[in-house]
Amino acid sequence: MAGLYHLARLNDRWFRLDEALVSAFVERWRPETHTFHMPFGECTVTLQDVAYHLGLPVDGRYVSGCLSEFHIYIQGGRPAWVWFQELLGVTPPPSQLFADKSGNRVHIRWLPYVARLEEMGTYSWGSAALAWLYRCMCRVANRHVVKLAGPIQLLQSWIFWCFPLFRPAGYETFSWPLASRWSGYNPSSSEKGPRVQMWRLRIDRLQDREFIWMPYSILDVLQVVHPEALEPRHMALWRFVTSLIYFSVIEWHQIDRVLPQFGGVQPRPNPALNIDFLMSKDGRGGDRWFPYHLQKWHLYWDDRAETVLRFDVVADPGPSHEFLEWWSQHRKRFLSPDMHLGDPRAVSIPVEASQRGAGRVPDMDRPEDVPDRRRVERRARVGTRRSQRDWRWLEHAMDNDDDAGPAGGG
């Protein structure tokens, strides 16, 4: 009834995480762009990947609400424990009602969805899962965070699918969803540190032809994206997709930075949107009804079909020559020590990148009230008004010294 049975079957056989491989990829995750910064450019897990690997719907209603006091807004104000008794036939002890940091309990915030199983398939659970994966990787990018949460099956399956050199041998049977293909995979149990270094070096040596830009057929892609938004020679994709999970997580899905994954040519990207003020929100410190409190962001989601990104689909998608020149100058492409790399920096830009030419992507309109990262970068470069006042005494002293003329009398 909920449409999630295929997802539950992912754990028919234990899905084991290759911690060393995932750690090496998380090292290359950039929170400001929500992409992995690779030697050959950017790539990321997209809504399309969620649809194929987990079988979750990417279109539908947003997942939102509030953290605990939802009974004020839903079902005539019935207390949560009354709902619990009616739905599950038992009333839990108060001390266990809101516990959520465990492997066998679910937060009561999900109770309204359980109450209407027939409506669960109408929500965009795919965007919710992707937003939560983005948020978890952004958190673990902090050096003080050591544990990665979120839908790790999605991340690992995406790595195996898009990077053929990293796939485990012996898993060639196709099944649905695609992440179930790797069910039963058992990674090495050897020491993690040396294995992370090994994966890091293998990633440093990757070239763009060793990444499958479009791992799914064009026909399947057209079925995932809005069919009515497509034109014969162009693929229309959502320009900005705000995804909400845990009722307060908002993340940007910036597909303009990974156009080759949808069949386009990647030009030099626009500056990334700065949503640091949203990244700091984690649901603590107050319980608000988010459809009202975050109404503007919910409207962005509702209008997603109106803000599409159109570009030509080419036979040989990948980074353009212009992008690769910019990437080599402005990004840290290698993480391993120089002596381990065999100096791949001397490798010239491939000829096919010149043949692809620059991608044709229109300028992107910034949503209102979203801070411009360029303003943040300028502040870091030239200082704030306060820092400028702190040094103004030195400027005045130098000016007075110049006005006084050379020392000496006469």
Automatic annotation (TrEMBL):
InterPro entries, per database record: AminoTfrase-like_pln_mobile (IPR019557), MAIN-like (IPR044824)
Feature: compositional bias, Basic and acidic residues: 362-375
Domain Aminotransferase-like plant mobile: 3-66, 96-328
Any one biological process term the GO annotation gives: meristem maintenance
Biased composition (Basic residues): 376-386
Annotated region described as Disordered, given as residue ranges: 354-387
Protein's recorded name: Aminotransferase-like plant mobile domain-containing protein
